[in-house]
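Q: Got a minute? One more chain.
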Amino acid sequence: MKLLNITLSNLASLTQAAVDFEQAPLSHSGLFAITGDTGAGKSTLLDGICLALYGKTARLRNDLKNTVTFNGDDIKLNDPRNLLRRGCAQGQAEVQFIGQDGERYLARWKIERARKKPDGKLKRPEHILFRVADEQQLTQSSSATVTKIEQLIGLNFEQFTRAVLLAQHEFAAFLKASADERAQLLECLTGTDKFSRLGQAIFEHHKEKKGELEQLQNSLANYHVLSDEELASLKQTITTLDEQLSELKAKSTQYQQDIQWLTQGEQHQLKLQQYQQQLHNLESQIQQQAPEVEQAKLAQLVQQIADNRQQASALTTQHEKLTRQHDELVKQDYQQQIDQQQALVADANKAQQTALEALKNHEPDIKLVRTLDNKRYATSQQLEDNKKQLASTEQQLHGITEQIQRVEQQLKDNQKAQNEQMTQLEQHTAVKSALENWSYLENTFDTISQATQRIESLKNQYKSQYDERSTLESKLAPLTVQIQNQQASHLAQQAQLETLQKQLATLDYEALQKQSYNLKSALQLSIDGQKNDHEQLQLTANIDKYRHQQHTLQLQLTDTEKQVDLQKQRTLITQENVTQVQLRASEKISALRAQLREGQECMVCGATEHPYGVDHIDSHWQNLIADFTEQQQKAEQALTQAQQRYNDQVVATEQLNTQLQVALQRKSQLQEQHTKLTKTLQELGFEHYVDIDLSQQHLQEIEEKLSRYSELSKSQQQLWQQLQASQHQLSQNQSQQSDIQQKIQGLSAALDANTQQQNDASNTVAQLKQKAHQNYCDSTWWQQYEQDMHNAIEQLTSKVKQYATWQETLAQLQHAQQQLNTQQHNDVQHQNKLQAMLVQQQSALTELQNTLNELDSQRKALLPLTRSADEWFNELQTRHEQCRSQLTTCQNTLTRLEQSAHQQQLELQHLKTQLADNQSQQANVEKRFEQWLATQRQQHSELNATTVAQLLAVPFAQYEDILNKNQHQQHQLTQVQARLNHLHEEIEQHQTQARTTASLEQLKHLLSELNLQIEQVQAHWLDHNTQLKQHEQNVANRQAQQNELSHLQTQYEHWYLLDKLLGDATGKKLRNVAQTQTLKILLQYANQHLSSLSKRYRLSIIGQSLNIAIIDKDMADEQRSVNTLSGGESFLVSLALALGLASLSANKVQISSLFIDEGFGTLDPETLSVALDALDSLQAQGRKVGVISHVSEMTERVATQIHVKKQPGGYSSIQIKGQI
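A: Always. Here it is, folded:
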């Protein structure tokens, strides 16, 4: 991977920055420096590279939770959007690079605010990738871009930051750290913290399995198991109770069947009395209601002529209504109203003509007034505009005069302030030299302060390490004695464990379990067989009962079938009646009746008299249709009820058949179960039911052996746990002993290194003070510095800042004076122009006012100024419209009166015709009634006109209820007679099935006593059977938990070994093992780079620890401590380690660009020279190396530089320096 160019916009302090590594001087320089003052934005260039490639930076990746308010947006501290420059609406970073495939690519990361305004909300960043050759966009989303770039470069973000941004300063601390600290640093540098997490996971799993094992061992004691004697006795008792229960239930079944036979006989006698009483009651009711029924039948006959009587009443009412309408029409007189309205029409026509002539005469004057109004409005508008322009010009003239006066005063104040600033600068010339070298002095003072603090820290650290080594040495001796005692105890426990294992080998646990299981199964099968026999007896009784009920339902179903047939016949008859009436009342028949005329022959029958040729016949047929339809609906309802009863009885029969079938199937199943039980017993090795006493005795012997096995197994488990615990404690003590010994060695080496570091730091402070004195030689201040360093630096900083402020203020005042002189000249010219413009505007205003006065005079001569032309025209037009509207209204009223008079004549003629037709219809209706009455009196002499009227006065629904009630009683009478006959047959059949001579009370008493005995025996059986089930369940659960314990024991041993070797609460064991291997690999890569930097040294690991030694080839491969290296040598070794980590992280990826961001500020000149020589050697390997620093010696040695310079206003600019 090779970087080609970098482009940044509005990121941190950089507004615009572009670095092109393909342009001179960077194109032919392998080593370049990124220089600039602290805070100028040097590291922002590296942030831009990371943003363009991966969308995040190394500096902002630590804080993941805390948030900060960023210009109105709450975002996390690690959010890269924090790098957007304040006050900017957008920013971006672009990097062009060559991928592993040799192609050029452009990666762009861009951030914007909403609406592209500085106060808009932050949007989500845009991150995309282009191929430069064909300008094709390869990705759309940020995640896809990062994935694609990782493929092209061959590195993820963590690998990139370790391979390209070298962590040389971290390896400087790595060399001086203890073994444990070195493992932690190496874990962070290489990103291999997963081994610590894995060690912690092993520890937690071991802890979890140990807790599960202890909990399961404790739960085994909760299961209580019966002895063999107790179990045999319990099974014998259950067998005896089963036999008693079978005998008692057989007697109970016999008593129940006898009671059922007696109860059924009593029910038959009770039903017989009920049916006889119902038959007597129905016959009495029918006889008492006979007169009412005759009256209702007569009313039903009269319904035939009801439509005739209704038509006669309707015709009489119609005749009275038509007579009243005729009299009211005759009284109305419309001729007088018509004459009056004709006179009003003539007056309205004359007024309309007068208004029209007035509108035409004034039309020219109205047009002239409108023309004058338009001219007056235009002149007024122009006059108002000129007045506004005049006022604006006067206001501008006043403002420019005041501004000229303000500028003159500002010029005076500016000159005075310049004189004051020059006086201050002349009085403090001594501070000028400090200001010119302030960047170097400030960094030097910081370095001296840090070195001083480092010396104090090293002294405190030396004392702490010395005390710690003494404490560890005092702990080591007693710990060694304790380990020897634990080893002896561990051997004794192992001998006890072997003895227990030999005792367990004499017992065959699986064979004992199998014998116990077979014997228990045989006992349970015997109990199930007895229950099976008892249930078969009960099913036999139920099957007999179901068959008897089946016979009874079959008889009821036959009776209901007959009732359904009767209701179907009645429904067909009523349906036929409705059909016949509907045919006679059809539309075609009604049309033929309407054509009949008195005295003319009928086209159907040829008769000249037409008794049905009147209008009221249609309503009569409709009434008949309604009556017959109602009868049909009642017949259908009765049929539906009968069918519903039939369906209910069919369903009941089917349900009974189902119950019978289920009982038969259940009996067959029980028989099959009995066969299977017998077969299972034979498979278990038992031909018949087992002997309970012998079986229980045998089971007791087996349980004793199983109990002995459990006790031995439990003792073995406890002893094994004790052995594991002692082994664990021994391992911990041995590990603690080893750690103490390593710590003592490490502390001894650290004390030597601490002494050397104190000496180096003191020399560095002396050299820095000497150089700083050359740049600022104020002896008085240096005396104050030696007495109070921090206070002296603060005073000098304040003076330098004040002096710089005075210089900047003087430059600003001079620049402001130039601007004020230019502004004063421009303001005087503007004042002269405004005065000339004011004179012209006043003259034009006077001329417009005269023109407006002349137009007002002409307008007043035609129409007052208060009235408009539109008002005058609207007034004349409104008067004309009112007259025309009044004329139209009068004409419409006259037309309506004439139409009303004509309509009156037509209605009178129509009423006369209707009265004649009404009289003719009344005569026909009365003639038909007299004919019907004469016919009916031949059979019903009591009928006359009065009787008919009385019968029709009562609603027919009352008579219909009487008829329906009588019909229902007749039907009930038939049903009761049928039921009574059927009951006699059942009584005869019941007498032939006589079962007992005892009374019902005696049988119930015997059954009650027997049920009490059954309940007592069942309670005892249930109690004993529950005990047996609980015993079997405990045996099964205990065996299952024993199996689970063995399985869990195996798992625990696995995790115990892993925890012993690799696990602990902090993950330290596995981390140190893994980092030892990582360190070996890292040193291999580092030695490859160190050989090119220095031929003298080689890095080596001490044994299998994390301690590092230096092999000095010039001293016959002498092994030295890394703490004996000088400052320059430490830098070379740290740089080699950083390059080694880069090679390790690159994973065989060719890296052509490297950046080193830290580590040069604290180097003395000699060490810095060594470091630069090393960097030159990297350049010779074909790599492009960038060094970020503000050290002046480095900037002098490195010809090619990217200089980041602070500018006024809080931003920085970039300048490329070097030989082209």
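A: Residues 303-361+870-953 form one domain.
Q: Perfect, thanks.
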